[in-house]
Amino acid sequence: MPGAGSPERPGPDASRSGSPPAAPPRSDILVRPSGPLRGEVEIGGAKNSILKLLAATTLAEGHFTLRRVPRISDVDTMIELLESFGCRLRYGGDDVLHIDVPQQLSPHASYDLVSRMRASIAVLGPLLARCGEAMVALPGGDDFGSRPIDMHLAALERLGVDIDLSHGYVHARASTLKGEEVSLAWPSVGATENIMMVATAAEGRTVIDNAAREPEIADLAAFLNRMGAEVLGAGSPTITINGGGPLRSVDHTPVSDRIETAVYLAAVGIAGGEITLRGAQPGHLRMLCDKLGEMNLRTSTIRGGLWAMSPHRLRATEIVTLPYPGVATDYQPLLVAMLSLADGVGLVTENVFANRFRYVGELIRMGADIRVEGRCAIVRGKERLSGAPVRATDIRAGAALVIAGLGAEGETVVRDTRHIRRGHEDLVGKLRSLGADISWVPAG
Ligand code: UD1
Question: Which residue's C-alpha comes closest to atom 39 of ligand 1?
């Protein structure tokens, strides 16, 4: 069996120094009923932070160091994107990434790279700030909806950017960027980040009203401030950026990945047992831990992480996804997988993305009793699911199917694992280290 339990691929051209052996790119994941889980796993840096921090490095010339960088293919894509602008990147250890940003950048993000990963749109703001222009492919839709970028573009226009949409690209130009008040109709994570980054180069003060409050936003603000910017209020609904000052390169360790943490919480919820999640930041997971408590999963903050135990069968509850500090939409597939095995009827309302229940059909193939009506899913819990071949439809749904397999009779084979590799570092190895019966197998 090739690469059983091996970690995910390292970056494309970044030096392989210290890299673990690569899993074959077209492998499936085989899961058998498992539990109780025991042991501890290390939670990595937040994907949704690191991608934006990498984009933000283009704001200044010099040598940056990012630590705790997970080996996932979305990071590989962002590395390729930065290399296409003229940056040089190399790993200096398992999870340390060095970035050299040159004086001259080529501000062009190709469709090939942007279409692989929507988060590539995060380069629009920093390229504009640094080069006065940017040409970035339109990201288009993805697995959970049309995902427009109208709020990003309207905010940039307010700051003095000329936007032209043609031939599938955003052509953005600004001779002068001017600070302004920007009010977001919805606290979009990506729009808040792009505005923060472009506003560092705008003359005067920019105020973002109804800004996103996710921990990754506060992390980006901390990074920008370390670079010499003045970003105030990140983590609250009003962020103020006093722009125009010089920026410099820095060394930074990002916040830990709360979604990766949620994956292992869901795993112990379904398989039972007791685990420790080293490096998890429980302060970012309060609402989720409250919900999991209602479902019978016990969690407790410990020095340097989070402890969790699942002594009984899970109990059904009602879940509503919301922008932070609410229950994140990225947890939703994991919670639906848990409710599929809980005692009682659960109700899940998805408020952030219009079309984020596509994967439910795969859980139903595993015997789950789920009815989707618009933005709601009604989940009738079962004692056991039934192992089946299933397809990962996106990053988080893929992880949820793997976790559901822990509570399914027989074998579950998860296909299209490229989605899982995009965002979950060494999911197979980490679950195995907790005692799960899981391995890579050749693609079927
Ligand atoms: C980020 C996260 C993603 C998470 C999401 C919500 C990254 C790489 N991705 O995505 O994992 O699920 O936040 O927490 O960090 N919208 C518009 N117009 C816009 C922008 C957004 O209508 O210009 C809509 C979206 O379609 C969606 C909602 O606003 O319905 C939230 O999107 P947003 O917060 O922007 O998510 P992303 O930044 O794309």
Answer: 190
Q: Taking a C-beta distance cutoff of 8 angstroms, is the pair 277, 41 a contact?
A: yes
Residue 397 · residue 358 · CB < 8 Å: yes
Q: Which two tokens stand for residue 208?
A: 């973002």
Q: What is the largest CA-CA distance in the chain?
A: 63
CATH number given to 47-252 = 3.65.10.10
Report the residue among 189, 197, 320 best suited for mutation to probe ligand 1: largest number of ligand atoms under 8 A from its CB. Answer: 189
Written in H, E and C, the secondary structure of 318-350 is EEEECCCCCECHHHHHHHHHHHHCCECEEEEEC
Residues 6+ apart with CB under 8 A from 228: 245, 246, 247, 248
Q: Which ligand 1 atom sits closest to the C-alpha of 354? A: 30
Q: pTM to 2 decimals?
A: 0.94
Q: Which residues does residue 252 pair with via DSSP β-bridges, in sequence order? A: 66
- Average pLDDT of the chain? 93
Strand partners, 96: 93
User: How many other CB atoms are there within 10 angstroms of residue 396's CB atom?
Assistant: 27
Q: Are 354 and 145 in contact (CB under 8 A)?
A: yes
Cα 425 to chain centroid distance, Å, stands at 11
How far from chain centre, in Å, is Cα 102? 28
Which whole-number Å values give the CA distances from 269 to 15, 44, 209, 424, in the listed order?
38, 21, 38, 19
Distance, CA of 239 to CA of 115 (rounded, Å): 30
For the CA of 324, the closest atom of ligand 1 is 14
Q: List the chain domain ranges.
A: 27-44+256-442, 47-252
Tell which atom from ligand 1 comes closest to the C-alpha of 328: 14
Contacts of 361 (CB under 8 A, 6+ apart): none
345-394 pLDDT, tens digit each: 999 999 999 889 999 999 999 999 999 999 999 999 999 999 999 999 99
Give the strand pairing for 376-380 and 345-349: antiparallel
Q: What is the CATH number of domain 27-44+256-442?
A: 3.65.10.10
Q: How sure is the predictor about 261, in pLDDT bands with cuts at 50, 70 and 90? A: very high
Cis peptide before 126 (omega within 30 of 0): no
Distance 187 CA to ligand 1 centre (A): 9
* Domains 27-44+256-442 and 47-252 are alike in CATH topology: yes
Q: Which helix (H) or strand (E) is 79 found in, with range?
A: helix 73-85
